[in-house]
Design goal:
Distance between the termini: 69 Å
CATH class of the largest domain: Alpha Beta
Keywords: Aminoacyl-tRNA synthetase, ATP-binding, Cytoplasm, Ligase, Nucleotide-binding, Protein biosynthesis
Catalytic activity: tRNA(His) + L-histidine + ATP = L-histidyl-tRNA(His) + AMP + diphosphate + H(+)
InterPro entries: aa-tRNA-synth_II (IPR006195), aa-tRNA-synth_II/BPL/LPL (IPR045864), Anticodon-bd (IPR004154), Anticodon-bd_dom_sf (IPR036621), His-tRNA-ligase (IPR015807), HisRS-like_core (IPR041715), HisRS/HisZ (IPR004516), HisRS_anticodon (IPR033656)
Oligomer: single chain
Strand order of the largest sheet: 1-5-6-13-12-11-7-10
Shape: elongated
Main location: cytoplasm
Organism: Hyphomicrobium sulfonivorans
CATH architecture of the largest domain: 2-Layer Sandwich
CATH superfamily of the largest domain: Bira Bifunctional Protein, Domain 2
């Protein structure tokens, strides 16, 4: 009889397009979310949290990638065999919430929300299947002033995060203008909805591919660097030129751009853009901050009016010295028909969404040379196993004073391992109390940050043993005050970030 095979061990691996996020990045993210939240609250928005799953029919036809068999979303069936999907953005769940509670909410309804969204799309460098967004939306206001406010909100948020004026621009356009252009070249009406969506997605890649890349996507299609082919909108030459002429109407000032757009198609959309330019300028937001730009379209189909995009304009170098430009880190627009899918009534709405992960990556590069390291906990070392209770009391004393602290819980036999652990945790200092210190009512504090600096200047092991850099013995009663002094010393010597 052959031996029964043991169960194969699973391979530890991540699904494609997903990633783990570790402590330092999570702390940066929480600080960033706090600053965004403060601006959104300042504008009067209220928080709302909706589930990660929605019934698939609630997401409707407005999906991010309709070319795929599963339409760009991750879906499953519940116990009642109803299809549910992970949300692909935070706007479709908001539309469902408003429709469900329309009779009871104050209108206009102003909400902000943050959370992960999921796209079943081809992953690539910097393109993940799970990522975080932070949205603000106004539902029930048909005034263009609501759209202008979103542009100002976007500008204020970027500046609150430390992005200087001149290093970003909020670009504004209007879907009504492009709709008029598309109708003029014969792709209006319901029969051409799929072709119009292909045109939208082509223009939405303008920043990344440039005019020639977009031209290919408006025509027969384009093969990228990996060899993958993207089918084009198959417009004729006249249609392509009309679309590219519209996207190229950008001029040096908002007034000049508006004049060019009026020459192409003098529609309600152009008038709305003129009003946004007037409202933002009157509030002190110049063309260096909020600019009319016909190349901005946004890739989702549900936008019905003004659309906007927050773009970072600064260029930095990565660790290899290569230039990096982050481009768009957020966007949004007006979507007056999304709630109507549920209610049958037009409910005006507009919103702005920040791509948190992308913006955080840009801020990390921007502040790479000035960002302080994360503060690790103070580590209380274990010199005598039978005195664990004494050491734990020290930890409690530090925590009671608001100091992050922990007891070393590994094998205490090798003291060097305890110091190595503290280094890896980013600890500012360790607390040491052997029998001699205990009998004298003392503790020894080893300043790991100062010690690392001193160690760079000490080459000889004997010299190290003699000097014991950045190590001090103090009264046990002064433990909290002395640890606070070490932490404060390093905090005050750090450069300011952001």
């Amino acid at each position: 009889m052959s031996k029964q095979k043991k169960d194969a061990r699973p391979t530890p691996r991540l699904p494609r397009g997903l990633r783990d996020i570790e402590a330092a990045e999570l702390r940066q993210q929480q600080a960033m979310l706090g600053k965004i939240r403060s601006v959104y609250e300042l504008y009067g928005f209220e928080p709302l949290e909706t589930p990660a799953f929605e019934y698939t029919d609630a997401l409707g036809k407005f999906l991010p990638d309709q070319d795929r068999p599963n339409e760009g979303v991750f879906s499953l069936q519940d116990e009642d065999e109803q299809w549910m999907s992970l949300r692909y953005d935070l706007t479709a769940p908001l539309a469902r919430y408003v429709a469900q509670h329309y009779q009871f909410i104050a209108k206009p309804f102003r909400r902000y929300a943050t959370g992960y969204v999921f796209r079943n799309e081809k992953p690539g460098p910097g393109r993940f299947r799970q990522f975080m967004q932070f949205d603000a939306d106004t539902v029930g206001a048909d005034s263009v002033a609501a759209d202008a406010e979103m542009c100002m909100l976007a500008a204020d948020t970027l500046e609150a995060l430390g992005i200087k004026r001149g290093d970003y621009v909020i670009k504004v356009n209007n879907r009504k203008v492009l709709d008029a252009v598309m109708t003029s070249i014969g792709i209006g009406g319901d029969d051409n909805a799929a072709k119009r969506l292909t045109v939208l997605r082509a223009i939405d890649k303008f920043d990344r591919l440039g005019a020639e890349g977009v031209r290919e996507l408006l025509g027969k299609g384009r093969k990228d660097e990996s060899g993958d082919f993207t089918k084009g909108a198959e417009l004729d030459d006249a249609g392509i030129e009309a679309i590219l002429g519209f996207t190229a109407a950008l001029a040096g000032s908002n007034d000049e751009t508006l004049s060019k757009l009026r020459a192409i198609t003098d529609t309600e959309g152009v008038a709305e853009l003129a009003q946004i330019a007037e409202l933002t300028a009157s509030a002190g937001y110049g063309v260096d901050r909020i600019r009319i730009d016909p190349s901005v379209i946004r890739g989702l189909e549900y936008y019905t009016g003004p659309v906007f995009e927050a773009e970072l304009t600064f260029e930095v170098k990565d660790e290899k010295g290569n230039p990096v430009r982050f481009g768009s880190v957020g966007g949004g627009g007006r979507y007056d028909d999304l709630v109507a899918r549920f209610t049958g009534q037009k409910v005006p709405a507009t919103g702005f969404s920040i791509g948190v992960s992308r913006l955080q990556a840009a801020l990390a590069v921007l502040n790479r040379d000035s960002a302080p390291p994360a503060d690790g906990p103070v580590i209380v070392t274990v010199m005598e196993k039978e005195r664990i209770a004494d050491y734990q009391k020290m930890v409690h004393t530090l925590r009671a004073a608001g100091i992050r602290a922990e007891l070393y819980l590994g094998n205490p036999k090798k003291f060097g391992k305890q110091l190595e652990y503290a280094d890896k945790r980013g600890s500012p200092c360790v607390v040491i109390q052997g029998s001699d210190e205990r009998d004298a009512g003392k503790v020894t504090l080893k300043d790991l940050i100062e010690g690392a600096k001193a160690a760079e200047a000490i080459k000889d092991h004997e010299e190290w043993k003699e000097q014991r850099p950045a190590q001090v013995t103090v009264d046990a009663a002064d433990l909290v005050a002395e640890v606070q002094a070490i932490i404060a010393r390093h905090a005050s010597s750090r450069p300011l970030s952001g």
